[in-house]
């Protein structure tokens, strides 16, 4: 097995029960790392950076769901932040066992690619997320699926990594309670901005909203937060197509009576702070400065 970090990833997964719910973020100097989403000690989702294989491709190949239906369901999930696999089951397009088998295949192959990547570091971020309990996997399930198919690693190499490579951490990660407290305090501080209407912290990759504040009186902050994941995703796609490097500092949407300000976290590019401001009562320059300060201080 190549690289100490791959062994560390497997060791972290072996200790997933102690980690609980959150993300294992594997980083690479070129930005082509990966992420493993954990739910109560089990693996819910794996993303290998740079891989173009999509869950919808596997679903189309392994089930009777047509490409048109998958596109419609995916579009719906993008709008309302629903989980794609759960939506397919709820809408009756496939049964739970078929979808779980597809998820197992997809996550196992993504994990295999991730282990093969030249990663430079691994960190765990506690984070509250919701996944269906019967659509998550133990590390044994994933490894058992990988081993017969894998050309990169043998089952003996995987077993050795699980037993011999300790997970190294320079500092203890914050607890889930500390993380949520940090989010709550940051959102409350955003609401001290002149003209602040509502604010949220959002994961644009999964579509999940990690925290909201404000809204009401006709402004649905949950809908606005999940809807703006499409804005960030579209911008990321265009930047990649144009080969534009570097992070997005912020995105400003100017409406007749409101400013909508989106700022990705410098510590976690998959998350963004979102705040809606009354145009007549707020000051855009001060708002951008304050949002930048709050974002840079937000740790998860």
Largest sheet: 5 strands, antiparallel
Strand content: 15-25%
Helix and strand string, N-terminal first? HHEEEHHHHEHHHEEHEEEH
Number of helices: 11
Find the count of extended strands (DSSP E, 2+ residues).
9
Averaged pLDDT: 76
Give Rg in angstroms: 20 Å
Separation of the first and last Cα atoms: 31 Å
Fraction of residues in H or I helices: 40-55%
Low-confidence region ranges:
148-159, 161-180
Shape: globular
List the domain count as a whole number.
Answer: 2
- Strand order within the widest beta sheet: 6-5-9-8-7
Structural class: alpha+beta
Please describe what this structure looks like:
There is one protein chain. The two termini are 31 Å apart. The protein is globular. The strands form two sheets. A five-stranded antiparallel β-sheet has the order 6-5-9-8-7, with helices on both faces. A four-stranded antiparallel β-sheet has the order 3-2-1-4. It has 300 residues and is α+β, with helices and mostly antiparallel strands. A hairpin with a 6-residue loop joins β1 and β2 (34-39). The protein has helices at residues 4-14, 16-19, 55-62, 67-80, 84-90, 96-116, 139-149, 155-164, 176-190, 221-241, 284-297; strands at 22-27, 34-39, 42-48, 121-126, 196-203, 209-214, 251-254, 258-264, 271-278. It folds into two domains: 4-164, no CATH class; 176-297, Beta-Lactamase.
């Amino acid at each position: 097995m190549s690289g100490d970090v791959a062994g560390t990833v497997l060791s972290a997964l072996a200790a997933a029960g102690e980690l609980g719910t959150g993300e294992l973020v594997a980083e690479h100097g070129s930005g082509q790392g990966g992420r493993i989403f954990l739910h109560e000690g089990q693996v819910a989702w794996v993303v290998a950076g740079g891989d173009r294989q999509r869950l919808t491709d596997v679903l189309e190949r392994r089930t009777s769901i047509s490409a048109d239906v998958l596109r419609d369901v995916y579009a719906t999930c993008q709008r309302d932040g629903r989980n794609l696999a759960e939506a397919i089951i709820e809408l009756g397009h496939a049964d739970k066992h078929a979808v779980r088998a597809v998820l197992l295949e997809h996550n196992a192959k993504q994990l295999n690619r991730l282990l093969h990547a030249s990663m430079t570091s691994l960190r765990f971020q506690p984070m509250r997320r919701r996944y269906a309990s019967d659509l998550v996997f133990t590390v044994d399930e994933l490894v058992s699926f990988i081993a017969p198919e894998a050309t990169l690693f043998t089952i003996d190499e995987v077993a050795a990594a699980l037993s011999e490579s300790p997970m190294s951490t320079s500092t203890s990660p914050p607890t889930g309670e500390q993380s949520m407290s940090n989010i709550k305090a940051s959102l409350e501080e955003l609401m001290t901005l002149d003209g602040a209407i509502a604010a949220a912290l959002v994961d644009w990759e999964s579509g999940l909203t990690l925290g909201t504040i404000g809204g009401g009186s006709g402004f649905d902050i949950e809908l606005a937060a999940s809807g703006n994941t499409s804005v960030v995703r579209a911008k990321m796609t265009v930047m990649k197509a144009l080969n534009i490097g570097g992070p997005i500092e912020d995105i400003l949407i100017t409406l007749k009576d409101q400013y909508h300000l989106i700022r990705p976290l410098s510590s976690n590019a998959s998350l963004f702070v979102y705040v809606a401001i009354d145009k007549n009562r707020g000051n855009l320059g001060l708002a951008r400065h304050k949002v930048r300060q709050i974002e840079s201080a937000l740790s998860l």
